[in-house]
């Protein structure tokens, strides 16, 4: 299935950098957007527009003629609520409302495990568990999932919410269960786009890890069948780390370190995430 036009928000980020090329091949026109001045060499059929998610006036015209939106744009860290409000809460409303006004059929949204991050890891959770956010960042994911459900039930605008666990290189024991490889990310987004009917759907963004702590059975109709497995890194990772503290929420909860930090406290800079975005 080739679409006429796709819009990609957060195109300058790590995940956006790996999705731009495959998305450009799924449509006649890929409109990429972010808040940076430029994103490097554009792929065939791709254009770039700098726009602020918190501004409806900047976002609304981007939706003209679009079939679907892949919405990755956000502050991807915990911050004070006032900082999150514009890009992560209002920004989601702007995407859905502008998309609705222009007849966008579906939004594919980068949600997060942090929408349910306070569940203990001893529970293998499905896609239908009640929200249990670990941070203001996770709360924004809950808000957007509920927004997507409302726009489906009230306005028949479809959405797929990808609860990504950790789409980064495996550098710690948590990632042995939570890893989402870039190849599996691409497959997941592709299935979210090319599945004929999705309504409102939640699916976990995780690879085929032996230690995956979530259950995608109720989203099986998407046809997402991950291929990569973090177990290949297990021996080295476990040898390098000492015993886990069973009393630490960062160890015991699905949200990892986000479950143990204070609300509003930035965390990403201390997590050692490798910036391996794809260069163009």
From TrEMBL:
Protein keywords: NAD, Oxidoreductase
Gene3D superfamilies: NAD(P)-binding Rossmann-like Domain
Record-annotated NAD-dependent epimerase/dehydratase domain positions: 7-164
Signal peptide: none
Entry superkingdom: Bacteria
Family per record: Belongs to the NAD(P)-dependent epimerase/dehydratase family.
Name of the protein this chain belongs to: NAD-dependent epimerase/dehydratase family protein
């Amino acid at each position: 299935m080739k679409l006429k036009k796709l819009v990609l928000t957060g195109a300058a980020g790590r995940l956006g950098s790996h999705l731009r090329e495959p998305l450009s091949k799924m449509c006649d026109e890929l409109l990429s957007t972010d808040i940076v001045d430029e994103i490097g060499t554009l792929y065939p059929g791709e254009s770039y527009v700098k726009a602020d998610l918190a501004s409806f006036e900047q976002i609304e015209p981007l939706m003209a003629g679009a079939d679907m939106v892949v919405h990755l744009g956000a502050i991807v860290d915990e911050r004070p609520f006032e900082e999150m409000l514009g890009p992560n809460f209002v920004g989601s409303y702007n995407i859905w409302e502008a998309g609705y006004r222009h007849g966008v059929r579906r939004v594919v949204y980068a949600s997060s495990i942090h929408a349910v991050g306070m569940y203990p890891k001893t529970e293998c959770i499905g896609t239908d568990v009640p929200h249990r956010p670990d941070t203001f960042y996770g709360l924004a994911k809950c808000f957007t999932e509920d927004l997507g459900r409302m726009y489906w039930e009230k306005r028949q605008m479809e959405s797929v919410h990808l609860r990504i666990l950790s789409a980064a290189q495996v550098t710690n024991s948590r990632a042995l269960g939570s890893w989402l490889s870039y190849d599996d990310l691409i497959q997941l987004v592709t299935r979210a786009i090319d599945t004929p009917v999705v309504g409102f759907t939640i699916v976990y963004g995780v690879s085929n890890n032996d230690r995956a702590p979530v259950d995608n059975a109720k989203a099986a109709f998407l046809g997402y069948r991950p291929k990569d497995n973090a177990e290949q890194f297990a021996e080295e990772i476990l040898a390098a780390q000492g015993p886990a503290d069973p009393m630490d929420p960062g160890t015991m909860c699905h949200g990892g370190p986000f479950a143990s930090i204070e609300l509003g406290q930035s965390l990403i800079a201390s997590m050692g995430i490798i910036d391996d975005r794809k260069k163009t």
